[in-house]
Design a protein that fits this description.
Layout lengths: L12 E6 L11 H13 L10 E6 L13 E6 L15 H7 L3 E3 L1 E10 L5 E14 L4 E6 L9 E5 L19 E3 L4 E9 L4 E12 L2 E7 L6 E4 L6 E4 L4 E4 L24
Parallel strand pairs: 1-12, 4-13, 7-14, 8-10
Antiparallel strand pairs: 2-5, 3-4, 3-7, 5-10, 6-9, 6-11, 11-12, 11-13, 14-15
């Protein structure tokens, strides 16, 4: 796995890769998420070098109520399958995009849950993105759905264009990033990872300290890297309930007719 960040080895660090659990519900049912997810993950952390936390991540923003105030946009290659019916709350847009070689358009939004072990507190010292690959922009369709609610939780941001993309959480008192998790306690993060220059394939790395030991837990998207692409230039396609309508076309451009599900999407004009 290529890693363009070339991170130095960390003394006393123990690394373990966790597979993300993608089909979970969001912020409003946090208790249900933990009661379901934690036993599943603990079954996989039985070795003596297990990190002192368990982690779940939801990568489909339609399943996270904390992102209801945000557009859900994907970018798919111009040769992608016919236009989809995204279903209620645009819940099928994300899996359709992944199945057709697409990526999140402009930003990936993740709901990350970190649970402390049963004994002793741990400190989350850093969350960062590890870039596995960068690829140039390609002609793509952008499809998006409108927001459906209000943002109710804090957002942690990551700029994937940075050489070392580290999570940033702004506080009123200017304290540096760092969270203490008591035994059995859950810390939740709404992560927005943005990109503008190149398509990024990446995974999360979470650094924690327990006593004198350091651990790094790596999290991906169900065994695959997260994928985030720059927002395609030109117009984009908006779901209006019965089909896809073009929006944001350059001045003077001729708008194509709306496209119902099952029909090919024409390439929209750029500037």
């Amino acid at each position: 796995m290529a890693d363009s960040t070339n991170e130095p080895a960390r003394p006393m660090a123990r690394r373990r890769r966790l597979i993300a659990l993608g089909a979970l519900v969001g912020t409003t049912t946090l208790v249900a998420v933990i009661s379901y997810a934690v036993p599943k993950i603990i079954d996989r952390l039985t070795t003596s070098d297990s990190p002192p936390i368990t982690v779940t991540v939801v990568s489909d923003p339609s399943r996270v109520s904390g992102f209801d105030s945000t557009e859900r946009a994907v970018a798919v290659p111009g040769t992608a399958a016919p236009a989809p019916d995204p279903g209620p709350r645009c819940g099928d847009l994300y899996p359709w995009s992944r199945a057709n070689g697409g990526a999140d358009a402009g930003a990936s939004r993740l709901h990350l849950l970190v649970r402390g072990a049963d004994e002793g507190q741990v400190v989350i010292t850093e969350i960062r993105a590890v870039i596995e690959e960068r690829a140039p922009k390609v002609p793509s369709h952008q499809l998006y759905c409108l927001p459906e609610g209000e943002l109710t939780s804090r957002v942690v941001s990551i700029d994937l264009d940075d050489e070392r993309p580290v999570a940033k959480y702004e506080t009123a008192d200017g304290k540096p990033f760092g969270f203490t998790v008591a035994p059995g306690e859950v810390e939740a993060f709404l992560i927005t990872a943005t990109v503008a220059r190149a398509t990024a394939r990446w995974h999360l790395a979470i650094d924690v300290t327990a006593g004198s030991e350091q651990h790094t837990v790596e999290v991906d998207d169900g065994g695959e890297p997260f994928r985030t692409a720059p927002i395609p230039q030109g117009g984009r396609w908006l779901w209006v309930g019965t089909g896809w309508e073009p929006r944001g076309l350059p001045a003077g451009a001729t708008a194509p007719a709306p496209v119902p599900p099952g029909r090919p999407l024409p390439q929209l004009p750029t500037a």
